[in-house]
Amino acid sequence: MYKAPVEEIAFTLKHVAGLGSAIEAGLLGDLGEDLVDAILHEAGRFATDEVAPLAETGDRQGSRLVDGKVVTPDGWRDLYQKWIAGGWNGLTAPEGFGGQGLPHMLNVAALEMWNSGSMAFALCPTLTMGAIEAINSHGSGDLKNTYLSKLVSGEWTGTMNLTEPHAGSDLGVLKTRAERRDDGSYRIFGQKIFITWGEHDAADNIVHLVLARLPDAPAGTRGISLFLVPKFLVNPDGSLGARNDLFAHSLEHKLGIHGSPTCTMIYGDGRFGSEKGAIGWLVGEENKGLACMFTMMNNARLAVGMQGVAVAEAATQKATAYAKERTQGRAPGWTGGGMSPIIEHPDVIRTLLTMKALTQGARAISYACAHAIDMSHRASDRKQHWQERAALLTPIAKSFSTDVGVDVASLGIQVHGGMGFIEETGAARYLRDARIAPIYEGTNGIQAIDLVTRKLTLSNGEQVHAFLAELKQIADEVRHTNLDGFSATANRLDAAITDLGEATDWLLAQVREGKVAEALAGATPYQRMFGLVLTGCYLAKGGFAQALDGGAEGRIALCRFAAENLLSEVTALKDRVINGAASLAAAKAILA
């Protein structure tokens, strides 16, 4: 059973990602380490004792559509009520609507633990948190006053409605339409697919944020508007009124996250109400809905990255526990009687250390991204710097972490051997659940496009070069610790950072010269390259930070392992970035 790694999470937040220095600088108000520790321990307890025990039930039963109503797995409705009672939905929400206004770093750390307990369950509050941010940033005063307090408390949940059968990532071709009404409301007509927690029995109302097009809207993405469309209309006194004209037509039959109801939603077919059309209200301005939705999507991209971290952590825990118990063969040097535990075999050791290093690296990257988001709101003298740093890190945190989730879950099955392929052991669920995350919220290929064409060019490349300089400084600090073996690690870090810098400069040159196809041919390898270099640097930063206080042998050993076993891939990835375009063009005809 999963046990939240609270101490490791706290260490990474404080000593690697920047929470400790932000507290010391007074940038987080009266937040202190005692409160941080208390929140993390209680979030970990909830994840370990309340969420994780129901994960298998959710996977086995799934959410079901019964007589037109979605029924969640046994115990999940009660679990969600406990979630509400704990006030977890409002960690970072605005205080004026009942939230706690805490740093984003604490929220993503808690999200990791809840997703490790059950990714399928945690998806519900994750989407609600995104809806809160979008409404708070772009909604009118009336919409905020009507909906935010209930969303912040968790009494109502939120969704994000983008995708249609013919419009996946290309939202410019969506067909859902909106019609104006004289009272300032709109009527929404259309179909949306893959709507996470689009219908369920855990909350009294569901607030849908729906992208749609007005009749006179410009073509493409410039003509998309965002609308708030509740399941139940809300009376002037705040009570629930009539059922709105929308419903879940069906549930998707998915590879994983079975407990999460993924719905096909129908808006405005006349099933409910006196006239056809789901009643909605504009969020932001007409024809500028995509910009509003990106507030929610950017929130969701980091949250999805945390799903990758979460699954990787849970899979690593399960595989490690199994390797300690399972006996098979006799490992080299084994002196005990009978067969040795498989954790004594070199290949299993290497596999488990790879899982652990990738998990800790992805965690640090994601927390560093959350730190940049927090600083963009709180460090007023360097606002642009932190906004750009958050923008640079977001596609890496989303893509690298979710790739890690899949890779680590797959390695976890390998450690289990044939038993990992049997559903009863639980190892397979992690891989099935993790596989959606590289697709969610813009596929990882789209994240690579965004990273190379939009984020590397921030401040004409100065932001990424400043970041690389910071990584070089980490390598220099490691070199001067005078700890056995750490200087060699510094050399490997330095070489990997140099390779990353050369790849970065090459890509920037291609983009500036208009050779976008050449740049994008290497975008995905570059994204992984960046993630691996950050993994090495952040593991080293953690080892260096703990070395100052003593007792860092374990962290330093893991950092050395990562430098020697993971960073060796970086040079090959650089070659793929720089030379991949020619081979891609030459081989393209094979696919015809």
From TrEMBL:
Source domain of life is Bacteria
Residue ranges constituting the Acyl-CoA oxidase/dehydrogenase middle domain according to the UniProt record: 160-266
Q: So what does this thing catalyse?
A: 3-(methylsulfanyl)propanoyl-CoA + oxidized [electron-transfer flavoprotein] + H(+) = 3-(methylsulfanyl)acryloyl-CoA + reduced [electron-transfer flavoprotein]
Q: Which cofactor does it need?
A: FAD
Among InterPro entries, the record links this protein to:
Acyl-CoA_dh-like_C_dom, Acyl-CoA_DH_CS, Acyl-CoA_Oxase/DH_mid-dom, Acyl-CoA_Oxase/DH_mid-dom_sf, AcylCo_DH-like_C, AcylCo_DH/oxidase_C, AcylCoA_DH/ox_N, AcylCoA_DH/ox_N_sf
Q: Does the entry feature the keyword Oxidoreductase, yes or no?
A: yes
Q: What is its EC number?
A: 1.3.99.41
> What keyword terms does UniProt attach to this protein?
FAD, Flavoprotein, Oxidoreductase
Its biological purpose: Involved in the assimilation of dimethylsulphoniopropionate (DMSP), an important compound in the fixation of carbon in marine phytoplankton, by mediating the conversion of 3-(methylthio)propanoyl-CoA (MMPA-CoA) to 3-(methylthio)acryloyl-CoA (MTA-CoA).
Name by which UniProt lists this protein:
3-methylmercaptopropionyl-CoA dehydrogenase
Origin organism is Rhizobium mesoamericanum STM3625
